[in-house]
Amino acid sequence: MIAVDMVTGMEPVLKYVRRWGALVAAVIFFSLWCVAEAGRMGPTGGYGVSNTGLDSWSGSWPLVLMTLAIATASWKPLVSLGFTVALLAGQLSHALPPMASNHWAIYLGSFVALGFILWTAPQRLRYIAAGANVVAAAIMAFLMLSWRYGNGVGWYPPAYAGDRWMLQDYGWQLFALLLLIAGSCAAVGLLLALYQERGSLFRARELAQSSLKETEIDLIVEQERTRIARDLHDVLAHSLAVIAAQADGTRYLSKDQPKAVLNALDTIARSARSALVDAQRVIEGVRDDGMVTPQPRLSDIPALIEGMQRGSLKVHRSESGTSVELSTGQQMAVYRIVQECLTNALKHGGRGTDVRLHFDWSGPGLTLHVASALDPGQAGAGDPSSSRVGRGLPGMRERAHLAGGWLTAGPDGEHFRVTVFVPYGTREARETDDTVCAEAPGSLTEIADAEAQPLLAAIGLQQAAIAREVHDRG
């Protein structure tokens, strides 16, 4: 943590130096040479020499070129190397004066520029700059020792025997010295680059750890939310399902009870089923931020069919009877069942599968018929339903049961058929149903089979039979 704080504290300074350091170093480099050579480039001339100044001083052009090389090292590394090449090429061609004993160190500006390049430039340019400076150091050593140029620059004895013996005796020494200076400048640049990279790694690690902690917290919250939702759903599903089963079973078998009692039992059953569906909808629709997401309705089914048709699924929709407004939970259940049926048809039948949807509103509830063509291989199998039954069908059955209805699914010849029944939730439809039941007692069992889940109805029948037996014994 202390290392991270140190790197973080140095980051603003390094960022400023990285941007403006080369320009500041160029100004300092130029200023120090001007001060050091003021006696030789003054207006009156130094040491008894007249008409001397910056324009006539032999080191003027090398100083200007090396200053520009340093100034552009951070922004334009290749341009910086170009100024060094221009200086060396100019001296080799005698277009620029060679180095003298008092200003040969201007060459070191190239190595200062190398340090900034290795700090700020991409890796590929770093290799280019390092190789170019090695070659430049060799050329500098030659220019300083050759009798045609620097002739030893006052540091080495003149080459009376020619360049061969001069380079053989002192060439490697001077070249090694220049490489040592260049290596020192390069090491500083690389160390600064590594220091900044280390800071970036520290920040990345801190960010990753922070993100990991936040993810762990979100995961714990989500797991707890899921557990609470599952427990709440189980408790509500059990309690409300028992209430609905008892009320339906009693109402269907108590034909001799007053109509007010039957209406009260019907209200209890419908309220229990509606509460169960709404609770399921709320539990499934809560997002991570606690807001309830918009749930699909029957009006969204045309858009769903259009989207599946774009996926090369041939869907034919038809309706019969007058549509009735279903509750919000029932509409969501029908939408999800249709969505699962279309998805299964595309999954098992492939592209181009024919699917027929029929909404029948003429009965005591909505009856949905879905038929999709079976794959020829599945149609000829011994157990066609085995390849079609997965986690989707139990989910559809559960949704149908929660909506107060039922669902059947299975192969029928060359088609796979799904039939769903969802009873209407309006009081008018229920009262009409009760009137029909009173006038035609023989149809009571049929209506009970159509409206109630088989499991819930069985529970109600069993409890009602026990109650009658106790009453007869009494």
TrEMBL record:
What's the Enzyme Commission number for this chain? 2.7.13.3
**Where does the Signal transduction histidine kinase subgroup 3 dimerisation and phosphoacceptor domain lie?**
224-288
Per the UniProt entry, the signal peptide is: none
The membrane-spanning stretches of this chain are: 20-39, 104-121, 128-150, 170-195
Q: Which reaction does it catalyse?
A: ATP + protein L-histidine = ADP + protein N-phospho-L-histidine
Q: Gene3D superfamilies under this entry?
A: 1.20.5.1930, Histidine kinase-like ATPase, C-terminal domain (3.30.565.10)
Would the keyword Oxidoreductase turn up in this protein's UniProt record? no
What is the protein name given in its UniProt record? Answer: histidine kinase
